[in-house]
What we know:
Elements (H helix, E strand, L loop, with lengths): L34 E2 L9 H10 L2 E2 L18 E2 L13 E5 L5 E4 H6 L3 E8 L14 E8 L2 H6 L9 E6 L3 E3 L2 E4 L3 E5 H7 L2 E3 L1 E2 L2 E2 L9 E3 L12 E7 L6 H6 L1 E6 L2 E6 L6 E10 L2 E9 L7 E5 L7 E2 L1 E3 L1 H6 L14 E7 L5 E10 L14 E2 L10 E5 L5
Parallel strand pairs: 4-16
Antiparallel strand pairs: 1-27, 2-3, 4-5, 6-7, 7-13, 8-11, 8-16, 9-10, 12-15, 13-14, 17-18, 17-26, 19-20, 20-24, 21-22, 21-25, 23-24, 25-27
The structure holds ligand MTE and molybdenum atom.
Amino acid sequence: MTHASSAQLPFDGSSRSDAASPTGDADSGQELALRPVDGLPKWVGGRLANLLLRVVSMEENLGRRLTSMVTPITGYYRRDRHVHPTVDAATYRLQITGVHRPRAFSLDQLKALPFERRVLVQECAGNGNHLMGSAGLLGQAVWEGPSLKTVLEACGGAGPATHFAFRGHDVLKVAGVTLKHGYHYGLSLEELVRARALIAVHMNGEPLSRRHGFPARLVVPKIYSMSHVKWLAQIEGKTEEHRGYHNTWVFTNKIKRDGRWVRVQARWIDLKSLITHCRRDGDGWLLTGVAWGGDRPIPHVSISCDGGESWRDAKVQSPAEFFETNPDIELPDLEGAWSVFSYRWTPTRGGKHRLGCRARDDQGTWQDLENDPQVHGHFNQTRVKWRDVIVPAPRS
Ligand SMILES: Nc1nc2c(c(=O)[nH]1)N[C@H]1C(S)=C(S)[C@@H](COP(=O)(O)O)O[C@H]1N2
Ligand SMILES: [Mo]
């Protein structure tokens, strides 16, 4: 159990991704833009799209950063409700209520508990939805901090609590009047145990930045990040489900069951993949990207460069393979981490091509090609994300 060892991690893994390149010269030049086929209309250019996202307090991760095992903090996606509180580390307290022995933790007390060190996909539940198409609301960082289990044990256990609500310090007050209460989200104890949730105080070996929830946030591996409450102020043990607004209304889909549409909450991250780069590689192109599936390892990714008519195998590197080839790094817990993939492509003609990737998990389940017609909503959209590229005429 170390607190500082992750400082040696190759956080800017940009050079790492080339380890997967057959020729190794993928970084040497040209890169083609990958244009989402779904989502915002084409006339909404990249800048305008980013501006529109800012209006709802959302910043996407740039594709560039999503090829390596660890996504750099600068530019890491962000999503919240416009309020970024400045929390004083010296007076910070994390209140735990509704448990066996309710108590408060100072930041130092949290830091004195044994840490876990985990690398995992963090993804907004609305990532890659049909409205936006861009799919940049995800990243993979190294998180460190005490597990929720450790924190609860320091309170003598969960006591009567079967559910927990997590509340943030992002209260909006104007002239002493509360205009907005802090963000809150609830999960059952069973879900939190299954996910092995943690109270993160470090991201990529550094104290959390303000935008990512300084000084402490909840991180729930394999569950969508609406539950990863930033600027964590309170953990409230409850004897029934938390029926907050974000749980009940916001992050929900409608699913058709026995002929009736019922509302269900976004929860576990499903099987997905994304091509993030198309770079010059000798006389062809190197496609690279990431593939993930909650707790399911992804040993296989197929690529189509013709809009789905034919599929070929990509070369996949599992997170374990990546970290094992970096012997100076202490192996983190990798449950819920993505695989990276690469595929060398030599198109026979120039012009527009439609690229897609499709992950298959270790049980043989394939990522969806289409949206399920029995599901309506913006969350957990798993189907293949098509991208158009304009390729220059092949060199002869
Ligand atoms: N306190 C607080 N926590 C929050 C939110 C928020 O608005 N306030 N937004 C949630 C949502 S919807 C997402 S997707 C993640 C984004 O985490 P990030 O901004 O660190 O990437 O934070 C979650 N935690
Ligand atoms: Mo989100």
